[in-house]
Design goal:
With 127 residues, the chain is α+β, with helices and mostly antiparallel strands. It has a single domain (8-99), classed as Vaccinia Virus protein VP39 (Rossmann fold), CATH 3.40.50.150. The protein is built from three helices and three strands.
Length: 127
């Protein structure tokens, strides 16, 4: 981050990171990120419980959003719409609720500007 100094970044890690080394590692990581670059970063770490956001999986991840301090912007963690355990969707429910059409694509096509397409075409695989 010291080299590129992005305006905004998103970092993620396992939920257990906050307890690693009795919490000292997490505090050290946050401090280093906050002080990185010329301006430093306003950071908002949050442990997301994905099942509370409608994902049919009990997956807990720490997501850190950082915004360069000179921009004067703040990130607000979105409220979890499914806090009640009875609202959580199971993987079985997700798979059986709406059958997937046999000819369904497994991705969404992007709609890039021709200039972006040209730039992407110039990048070698792995570049």
């Amino acid at each position: 981050m010291n080299h590129h100094q992005p305006s905004v970044f998103v970092a993620e890690n396992v939920g257990g990171l906050e307890g690693a080394n009795e919490g000292k590692a997490f505090v050290q990581i946050l401090k280093a990120i906050e002080e990185a670059g010329e301006f430093g970063y306003n950071i908002i770490p949050h442990k997301y419980r994905f099942e509370e956001y409608g994902v049919p999986q009990a997956r807990h991840r720490i997501i850190i959003v950082g915004i360069r301090k000179d921009l004067g912007l703040r990130f607000q963690v979105p409220k979890a719409p499914f806090k009640n355990k009875e609202q959580w969707m199971t993987a079985k429910e997700a798979l059986e609720s709406e059958p997937i059409e046999k000819d369904a694509l497994n991705h969404e096509f992007t709609n890039h500007h021709p200039k972006v397409v040209k730039m992407l075409d110039d990048i070698f695989p792995g570049g």
